[in-house]
């Protein structure tokens, strides 16, 4: 039996060598803002909806740029469930009004991040996009 995979979309927002990350009220680790795709949603539709729900930001759909797909163990799952997150850069209107806690994190913050977020931070550093 294969492990379950959670299909997610994420927004990479950079500022001052850091990445915007969020933490839900009932979680201990930070993760890339975004969320799960609903049935028949495209990446663009799911990401725009999730970022509006999570950060109250209106993404500009025409500015979405694919960054990469990352897979790792799902936070808080003990059964081997994996999360696959397709990450994008995008421009937006407004300022974030997070439904969860928002922090700007870098590679020195690995201990505060989900395993998949650590993988994404490592790739961003390797690509020279963060410190």
Structure report:
This protein has 131 residues and is of the alpha+beta class. It has one domain (5-127): Alpha-Beta Complex (Nucleoside Triphosphate Pyrophosphohydrolase). It is 19% helix and 34% strand. The longest helix has 13 residues, at 43-55. The radius of gyration is 14 Å and the shape is globular. This is Hydrolase, NUDIX family. Keywords: Hydrolase.
Q: What is the strand and helix layout of this fold?
A:
Layout: E1 5-11, E2 14-15, E3 18-23, E4 34-36, H1 43-55, E5 58-59, E6 65-73, E7 82-89, E8 92-93, E9 101-105, H2 115-126
Parallel strand pairs: 1-7
Antiparallel strand pairs: 1-4, 2-3, 3-9, 5-8, 6-7
InterPro entries: NUDIX_hydrolase-like_dom_sf, NUDIX_hydrolase_CS, NUDIX_hydrolase_dom
Pfam families: NUDIX (PF00293)
Keywords: Hydrolase
Percent range of helical residues: 10-25%
Name of the top-level CATH class: Alpha Beta
Strand content: 25-35%
Structural Rg: 14 Å
Tell me about the biggest sheet?
Answer: 4 strands, mixed
User: Can you tell me the CATH superfamily?
Assistant: Nucleoside Triphosphate Pyrophosphohydrolase
Low-confidence stretches: none
Query: Looking across the biggest beta sheet, what order are the strands in?
Result: 4-1-7-6
Please provide the count of β strands.
9
Terminal CA distance: 40 Å
Mean of residue pLDDT?
Answer: 91
CATH topology: Nucleoside Triphosphate Pyrophosphohydrolase
Whole-number count of domains: 1
- Tell me the number of helical segments per DSSP (H or I, 4 or more residues long): 2
Return the string of H and E elements: EEEEHEEEEEH
Could you say which structural class the secondary elements and strand pairing correspond to?
alpha+beta
Overall CATH architecture = Alpha-Beta Complex
Shape: globular
GO molecular function: hydrolase activity
Cofactor: Mg(2+)
Keywords: Hydrolase
Pfam families: NUDIX (PF00293)
């Amino acid at each position: 039996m294969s492990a379950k995979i959670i299909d997610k979309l994420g927004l990479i927002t950079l500022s001052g060598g850091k990445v915007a990350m969020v933490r839900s009220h009932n979680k201990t680790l930070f993760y890339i803002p975004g969320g799960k795709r609903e049935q028949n949603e495209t990446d663009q539709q799911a990401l725009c909806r999730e970022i509006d729900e999570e950060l109250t930001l209106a993404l500009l759909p025409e500015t979405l740029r694919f960054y990469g797909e990352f897979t790792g163990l799902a936070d808080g799952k003990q059964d081997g469930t994996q999360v696959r997150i397709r990450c994008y850069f995008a421009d937006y209107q407004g300022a974030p009004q997070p439904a969860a806690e928002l922090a700007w994190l870098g590679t020195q913050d690995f201990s505060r991040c989900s395993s998949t977020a650590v993988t994404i931070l490592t790739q961003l550093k390797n690509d020279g996009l963060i410190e």
